[in-house]
Write a structure and sequence with these properties.
The complex is a heterodimer. Chain A is α/β, with parallel strands linked by helices. Helix content of chain A is about 35%, strand content about 30%. Chain A has 10 helices and 14 strands. The mean pLDDT of chain A is about 90. Classes of the chains: A alpha/beta, B alpha/beta.
Chain lengths: ~325, ~400
């Protein structure tokens, strides 16, 4: 990937509290339009990593650059490229939504008409335009969450960092948040998204870093991660007729590793069910079996995490 | 610096909106100043009634009755009544009609003229200790001048103490040069300085300033509690800018509260603060010191509640030690010396200097200087610690 599209680059991040290593050599990068997920359980080091990326926390070692500029607690210029959405609500309850946006907008250098325009745009996007003059302490939880994210988008950052934005959020708001992130990514924004929800990482992220005990255990696309740990897709075909012949024919299909007769059908193991499924079904039919149903079970990141760490994500 | 103003502006908006700063910075001190000045007059407005029983009617007793005691009356803190006999005087003192009475026995002048001991008796009431002490001081000064008088102090319900006289000197020449005692002169000097209303307005203003100024740095702990601090730090704003913005908010709140109090107490309570420039400099010094001290106190704590508690304890302790509730004029020497570690004492001292008959702005400058030094020293510690709150470690 060329240097012109690299938005975030962090290398060798270390942070210790006494003898405990909170972050131990974490490094990853994010390119323009890419959503990168840090997936790990609570206490894995996600927030500590993000805090160092944003320049909130002094680091023991490592480098972080955003759009090629170094960032640290005292190196603040590159912070203007980042939109940061903390895990907890970070809004002033005794100020209105508009006052909250105006305050943070000014801190990011927005003034005059530009500030007004961006404030209005964010209020529209977050659906808070009608309540702009109400103090946020009067808002529902979902409205506060939307404003919390809206503040991060106010200054049109190149990199949006969301730290577990759906924790404690109702399903409707959660979906709205995930939709927003997908849309922003589609519009070309780079996104760093931390979560301990496997489904969110699978849905949103182009690449995922699996983090545990302060270390990135593995990194890549979902498929790369699955392959990395040797996990395979499982296809169960419910069939009638000459099932034994169908199983034998299935074994000959390119990409099929195993095909065994089972009660009422055939169990097949393959590296990529989506790719082989058409030719597999054709071969079974040609062998004289009638396909009554197909069930594809793809290995998920939960399984990968379990394989890599020996524990479940929610342990 | 623009970002610091933005942060300070946001904080001021919040403080004005929740009215806490207005209550703590203006309403509470003004109300207390008004109440205290009505209910708790200071020593400067001390006034009592003295009786004098002159059974001698001679030239030496005339020195007391015609020169010394009229001087006390002129100073404005006592009225004088002549009483015919000692029993009546004792009854009046015991009954509370008088603070104390001077009894000059028959033959007093002759005794002194012939070189014998003579006794001047003060009848005092145990319930009017201050009036009795002052009467005793006046009489002691008189006795030292005539140098031959044995002074008896008789509590109305108690016994006697005696001050032994020295040798008899030339009475006539001493009478010619007699001047009121030093203590009377000091009382006169004090009465020209702060009035009750000014004293309590100034005292309450400086005391509550420590509650008002704390809102600045204290809000860092609020930001941390409500989760907005990380978002502030994530903005392209340096840690020092955030800290300075917070301190600036505290400083502005303190300065506005102090200004409003000075103006309001002048217009509504009749306080006389003194030369406006000198008062402005002292107010500036007071606000700087309050901002610094409260910043240091707030950053020692981990939570807002803890910080508020510590700041309240510190503010009240400094206020009491600094003489904001009562004048330190009659306090023991070490207390007066110890009070000089407090900004309150220096602030009041500066106003005292400014309010004296010959006071100028220059007289207040030492106090202003000390206030600024206290503010700078404590503020440096406070701001360094505040930066640590901002930057995660």
């Amino acid at each position: 990937m060329g240097g012109t599209t690299r938005v975030l680059d962090c290398r060798g991040l270390h942070k210790s509290y006494g003898d405990r290593k909170a972050v131990d050599g974490v490094g990853f990068h994010i390119d323009l339009g890419e959503t990168y997920g840090l997936l790990g359980p609570n206490g894995a080091g996600k927030t500590t990593t993000i805090s160092m990326v944003c320049g909130l926390l002094t680091r023991d070692a490592g480098e972080v650059t955003v759009i090629g500029e170094p960032i640290d607690v005292g190196q603040i210029h590159a912070k203007r490229w980042i939109g940061y959405v903390p895990q907890d609500l970070a809004i002033y309850p005794d100020l209105t939504a508009e006052e909250n946006l105006a305050f943070f907008g000014r801190l990011y250098g927005l003034t005059g008409k530009k500030l007004k325009a961006r404030t209005n745009a964010v209020l529209e996007v977050t659906g808070l335009a009608d309540r702009r003059d109400d103090k946020t302490e009067e808002y529902s939880g979902g409205m506060k969450r939307r404003l919390n994210i809206g503040i991060g988008l106010l200054h049109e950052p190149r990199l949006l960092i969301l730290d577990e934005p759906t924790v404690g959020v109702d399903p409707q708001s959660r979906n709205a948040i995930l939709d927003s992130v997908e849309q922003l990514s589609g519009e070309g924004m780079a996104v760093l998204y931390t979560t301990h929800y496997m489904e969110e990482a699978e849905r949103l992220c182009d690449r995922v870093g699996i983090i545990d005990q302060g270390q990135i255990k593995a990194e890549g696309t979902r498929r790369e991660l699955v392959e990395l740990v040797g996990q395979r897709d499982r296809v169960r075909v419910v069939a009638e007729g000459d099932v034994d012949a169908a199983a034998a024919a299935a074994r000959l299909v390119d990409g099929v590793e195993e095909a065994n007769r089972s009660d009422g059908g055939i169990d097949i193991l393959t590296n990529d069910a989506r790719v082989i499924l058409p030719s597999l079904l054709r071969s079974i039919a040609d062998a004289g079996a009638s396909v009554k149903g197909v069930d594809v079970v793809e290995p998920d990141l939960e399984a990968v995490f379990l394989h890599l760490t020996g524990k479940a994500l929610r342990d | 610096m623009r970002a610091a103003f933005i942060i300070a502006g946001k904080d001021l908006r919040q403080r004005i909106r929740d009215r806490s700063a207005i209550i703590m910075g203006i309403i509470a001190p003004f109300a207390l100043a008004a109440i205290f000045s009505l209910l708790l007059p200071t020593s400067q407005s001390f006034h009592t009634e003295y009786g004098v029983v002159d059974l001698d009617r001679g030239p030496v007793s005339a020195l007391l009755t015609s020169q010394v005691l009229p001087g006390v009356v002129e100073a404005g803190f006592a009225d004088l009544t002549e009483i015919d006999d000692r029993a009546s005087a004792a009854a009046m003192v015991e009954g509370g009609e008088m603070g104390a009475a001077f009894v000059i026995p028959e033959g007093f002048s002759d005794a002194i003229a012939s070189g014998r001991d003579a006794t001047l008796t003060i009848i005092g009431n145990v319930d009017a200790a201050l009036a009795t002490q002052i009467a005793e001081a006046i009489a002691t000064g008189y006795a030292e001048e005539v140098n031959a008088v044995s002074l008896s102090v008789a509590a109305a319900l108690g016994g006697f103490t005696t001050v032994q006289p020295g040798a008899i000197a030339d009475l006539s020449s001493r009478a010619a040069v007699f001047e009121p005692s030093i203590l009377v002169e000091e009382a006169e000097a004090d009465s020209k300085q702060m009035s009750d209303k000014t004293f309590y307005s100034a005292s309450m203003a400086i005391m509550f300033l420590f509650f008002t100024a704390q809102f600045g740095i204290l809000s860092l702990l609020s930001e941390r509690r409500q989760g907005t601090l990380p978002r502030l730090v994530a903005a392209p704003v340096g840690p020092w800018t955030i800290v300075i913005g917070k301190a600036l908010a505290g400083f502005v709140l303190g300065a506005v509260a102090m200004t409003v109090l000075i103006v309001a107490s002048t217009l509504l309570l009749g306080a006389d603060w003194g030369n406006p420039l000198g008062v402005a400099l002292l107010a500036l010094g007071g606000v700087v010191s309050a901002t610094g001290v409260s910043a240091m106190a707030a950053t020692m704590a981990k939570t807002e509640e803890q910080a508020s508690g510590w700041n309240a304890i510190l503010a009240m302790s400094l206020a009491v030690l600094g003489g904001t509730f009562f004048s330190l004029d009659r306090a023991p020497e070490f207390v007066s010396s110890l009070s000089l570690i407090t900004p309150h004492a220096w602030f009041l001292r500066g106003l005292d200097e400014l309010g004296s008959a010959s006071g100028t702005v220059a007289d207040a400058l030492p106090a202003v200087g000390v206030l600024l030094v206290i503010g700078a020293a404590t503020g440096a510690v406070g701001l360094m610690r505040a930066r640590r709150l901002v930057v995660g470690r």
